[in-house]
Design brief:
three-stranded antiparallel β-sheet, 9 strands, binds zinc ion, binds ligand BJW, single chain, alpha/beta
Length: 254
């Protein structure tokens, strides 16, 4: 692995443009559960029962109960050394674009923590492909509001409603079968196409269109560096594959 660490450092060090794609694994060491694999959320819950618009239409109380629980877990979680290393990279290397599938807000928190008073944090850091758990959105008019942390999911009547139109609020995340924000996905693919290096961290790379972003790096002549303790669909195409935990590997290579 030492040779691979050196190679990853060298590739990242001389890259003009770096595309970073992160997934749930980057937050695992902060205590945020991943989705797939041992201990993953989808081991205990069925995605189609909770993370689809159909599930919300069928049983909004159940869906809200799950998200209220996720929000309460997240309130205890803090950025780990992987989030901090990536925030420092983005700040010191202006050619970096960080694209995340995570909805936990930890990349943003890490960026706030590392920015010095004389520096300006990039408002587009990170590009959040799947939305944010710390925002709500009206299921009818689309109005966005800061997340409610006091949601009473005890009955359908007690669920939070839009102050504008009275329809049910929902978490501002992207469920299966829903379109990602077009401007966010376009910015992510544009960054991928111009990247010399794609650094892919803690994602199983099975959910589309996010999983196609590293492929776009390769198709445009860039190379992939992967950080993941497990083998993924991307491992075979990575020039360097570092099979460790993001919180240890990233501070070493960045
Ligand atoms: C560590 C570690 C450590 C552990 N350090 N690593 C093409 C082909 C096939 C299917 C499709 C396709 N195009 C679209 C689809 C359908 C679908 C899809 O992809 N399905 C596949 C699963 C088969 N995609 C969609 O539906 C998307 N929408 C769409 O395409 O719309 C089209 C449309 C267009 C126009 C109009 C209408 C529609 C939407 C996808 C939304 C995904 N949403 C979720 C939930 C978000 C909200 C919430 O949190 O509740 O997003 S699902 C879930 O998966 C979440 C994640 O962001 C996403 C990815 O998961 P991730 O991050 O990879 O986590 P894991 O758990 O899978 O992996 C963790 C990894 O970390 C593992 O590899 C570990 O080894 C590793 N690890 N510890 C480093 N310490
Ligand atoms: Zn509304």
């Amino acid at each position: 692995m030492t040779g691979d660490v050196e190679r990853a450092r060298e590739l990242i060090g001389r890259a003009e443009r770096i595309l970073v794609l992160t997934g749930a694994g980057v937050s695992a060491e902060s205590g945020v559960p991943t989705f797939r694999g041992d201990g993953g959320l989808w081991r205990s819950y069925r995605p189609e029962a909770l993370a689809t618009p159909e599930a919300f239409a069928r049983d909004p109380r159940l869906v809200w109960e799950w998200y209220a629980w996720r929000r309460s877990c997240l309130a205890e979680c803090r950025p780990n050394p992987a989030h901090v290393a990536l925030a420092r990279l983005a700040l010191r290397h202006p050619g970096t674009s960080l694209v995340t599938q995570n909805v936990d807000g930890l990349h943003h928190q890490a960026a706030d923590a590392v920015v010095r008073p004389e520096e300006v944090a990039d408002p587009a850091y990170p590009l959040e492909l799947h939305g944010a758990l710390h925002r709500d959105r009206c299921s009818r008019c689309g109005r966005r509001t800061p997340a409610r942390y006091d949601v009473d999911a005890g009955s359908p009547e007690s669920l939070p409603r839009c102050e504008e139109c009275g329809a049910l609020l929902r978490p501002d995340v992207v469920w299966f079968g829903e379109a990602l924000a077009p401007e966010v996905i376009a910015a992510a693919f544009e960054a991928a196409r111009s990247a010399d290096v794609g650094l892919v961290v803690g994602t199983s790379a099975v959910v589309h269109p996010a999983a196609a972003i590293p492929e776009a790096v390769i198709r445009s002549g860039g190379v992939l560096v992967e950080v993941n303790p497990e083998t993924t669909t991307l491992t075979a195409s990575a020039v360097v594959s570092l099979p460790g935990a993001a919180g240890s590997v990233l501070p070493e290579i960045l």
